[in-house]
């Protein structure tokens, strides 16, 4: 497994729901790795999670991916535009895509 060093957060000059998407520098390949919602396809495997009153996107990302900054994967997969909504007001069940099916690419 690669050891991640020098973790950074990309900043954009415009408002975007993906502005908090984390990226990091892979010292082995000497390349930046990042995640984009466009890399999450809708036909990848998922599990269903029954929403509780206390559930938030970052909590679900922590629970299923062991990383709360991957909340954007769940948001994109479920077409959630506002990541700060009270999930229990809008959803009874939410789809959690398999992290192994999400593609990551090199920074352009």
Task: Describe it.
- The chain contains three helices and six strands.
- The strands form two sheets. Strands 1-2-3-6 form a four-stranded antiparallel sheet, with no helix packed on it.
- By secondary structure, the protein is an alpha+beta fold.
- Helices cover 19% and strands 25% of the residues.
- It has one domain (4-106).
Q: Quick check: average pLDDT? A: 75
Number of strands: 6
Report the sheet-strand fraction: 25-35%
* Poorly predicted runs of 5 or more residues: 12-20
Q: What is the radius of gyration computed over CA atoms, rounded to a whole number of angstroms?
A: 14 Å
* Helicity level: 10-25%
Structural class: alpha+beta
Largest sheet: 4 strands, antiparallel
Termini separation comes to 24 Å
User: Strands across the major sheet, in which order?
Assistant: 1-2-3-6
Task: Tell me, briefly, the overall form.
Answer: globular
Tally of discrete structural domains: 1
Number of discrete helical segments: 3
SSE succession: EEEEHHHEE
């Amino acid at each position: 497994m690669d050891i991640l060093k020098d973790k950074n957060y990309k900043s954009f000059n415009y408002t975007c729901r993906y502005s908090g998407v984390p990226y990091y520098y892979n010292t082995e390949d000497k390349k930046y790795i990042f995640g984009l919602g466009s890399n999450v396809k809708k036909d990848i495997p998922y599990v269903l999670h029954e929403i509780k009153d206390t559930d938030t996107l970052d909590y679900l990302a922590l629970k299923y991916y062991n990383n709360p900054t991957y909340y954007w994967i769940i948001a994109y997969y479920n077409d959630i535009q506002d990541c700060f909504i009270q999930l229990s007001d809008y959803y009874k069940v939410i789809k959690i895509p398999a992290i192994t099916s999400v593609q990551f690419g090199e920074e352009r």
